[in-house]
Design a protein that fits this description.
Layout lengths: L1 E6 L2 E4 L4 E9 L6 E7 L6 E7 L5 E3 L7 E6 L4 E6 L8 E8 L8 E2 L3 E6 L1
Parallel strand pairs: 2-11
Antiparallel strand pairs: 1-3, 3-8, 4-5, 4-9, 5-6, 7-8, 9-10, 9-11
Length: 119
């Protein structure tokens, strides 16, 4: 069982930046991956960015490429999401997720952190 705790959300103006962090505890497998998802009101949760735990391979949703950067610190068991050039449509609750196999489904989730981008 892996526990995830997000932090760093808040209110920012369009064009601004925010950095989200996720602290993981429990049994983190080298074969796994961590990622960020978001859910806006009335919409389904969507994938934002992911990183494999051992190799550090990163991948992004098309809508955030070039604006968001995901990184992980294996020693501290943390993953971060640096968000720049934020847009009002980035407003959502952001969730950190973990999966034991990078090819599988995410099965551990944090409680979420709110990001609000004002126009």
């Amino acid at each position: 069982q892996v526990q995830l705790v997000e932090s760093g959300g808040g209110l920012v103006q369009a064009g601004g930046s925010l950095r989200l962090s996720c602290a993981a505890s429990g049994r983190i497998l080298g074969s796994g991956a961590m990622g960020w998802f978001r859910q806006a009101p009335g919409r389904e949760r969507e994938f934002v960015a992911g990183v494999t735990w051992s190799g550090g391979y990163t991948y992004y949703a098309d809508g955030v490429k070039g604006r968001f950067t995901i990184s992980r610190d294996n020693a501290k068991n943390t993953v971060s999401l640096q968000m720049s050039s934020l847009k009002p449509e980035d407003t959502a609750v952001y969730y950190c997720g973990y999966k034991q196999d990078s090819r599988g489904k995410y099965d551990s989730w944090g409680q979420g952190t709110q990001v609000t981008v004002s126009s």
